[in-house]
């Protein structure tokens, strides 16, 4: 369990951050960029949860927020550290099951979807876009220092989850806003 008695430590005042293994890296490093993007994605999901009706989807996103803390710990633990908290395949598989359940009742896509229609749908799309950025940051880090492959799969599947959830919520709220190619051209 994490216990924080003091929030500020002054150890990062010169631009470095501590990792799980005790090492320090620049706050501008690829690793810290990935951690920051995962943190931002988690915050965006928190906004979406607040907008969701209190149902199974909101409960799924509370689990996902917990997973994202696990994922952040995974990114913050370089190399192979004994007993390190790592994203597991079961977490990725849970996302896939959730996606399949939500997607089962949705009509096939016939157009790209605009990220709006309601505040809830827009929040889910915004969270999806931030997760995709977090995934790009994790892929960039993975190219420099190998990461847990399940971590990368989780981020990829999470963006799919948010997309399908946005469609699922839009269907409940009266429909999706579809892209009309060239609609504003003269």
Summarize this entry quickly:
The chain has 186 residues and is mainly α.
Structure description:
The protein is mainly alpha-helical and 186 residues long. It has one domain (26-172): Hypothetical Protein Ta1238, Chain: A (Up-down Bundle), CATH 1.20.1200.10. The chain is 58% helix and 3% strand. The chain is built from five helices and two strands. The chain has a two-stranded antiparallel ribbon with strand order 1-2. It is elongated. The model has no long low-confidence stretch (mean pLDDT 90).
List keywords for this structure.
58% helix, 186 residues, mainly alpha, Hypothetical Protein Ta1238, Chain: A, elongated, two-stranded antiparallel ribbon
User: What is the string of helix and strand elements?
Assistant: EEHHHHH
**Broad shape:** elongated
Summarize model confidence as the mean pLDDT.
90
End-to-end gap: 61 Å
Tell me the quaternary state. single chain
Which architecture would the CATH scheme give at its second level? Answer: Up-down Bundle
Count of helical regions: 5
Number of domains: 1
Give the strand order of the largest sheet, numbering strands 1, 2, ... along the chain: 1-2
Q: What structural class is derived from the secondary structure elements?
A: mainly alpha
CATH class: Mainly Alpha
**Which spans have pLDDT < 50 for at least 5 consecutive residues?**
none
Q: Taking Cα atoms only, what radius of gyration do you get, to the nearest Å?
A: 18 Å
């Amino acid at each position: 369990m994490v216990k924080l008695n003091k929030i500020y430590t002054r150890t990062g005042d010169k631009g470095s951050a501590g990792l799980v293994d005790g090492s320090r890296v620049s706050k501008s490093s690829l690793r810290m960029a990935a951690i920051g993007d995962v943190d931002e994605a988690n915050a965006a999901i928190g906004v979406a949860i607040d907008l969701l009706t209190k149902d199974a989807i909101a409960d799924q996103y509370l689990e996902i927020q917990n997973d994202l803390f696990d994922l952040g710990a995974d990114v913050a633990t370089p190399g192979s550290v004994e007993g390190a908290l790592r994203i597991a395949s079961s977490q990725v598989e849970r996302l896939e099951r959730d996606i399949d359940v939500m997607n089962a009742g949705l009509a096939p896509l016939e157009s790209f979807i605009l990220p709006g229609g309601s505040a809830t749908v827009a929040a889910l799309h915004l969270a999806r876009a931030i997760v995709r950025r977090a995934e790009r940051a994790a892929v960039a880090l993975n190219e420099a220092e190998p990461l847990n492959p399940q971590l990368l799969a989780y981020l990829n599947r999470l963006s799919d989850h948010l997309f399908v959830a946005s469609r699922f919520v839009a269907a409940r709220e009266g429909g999706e806003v579809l892209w009309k190619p060239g609609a504003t051209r003269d």
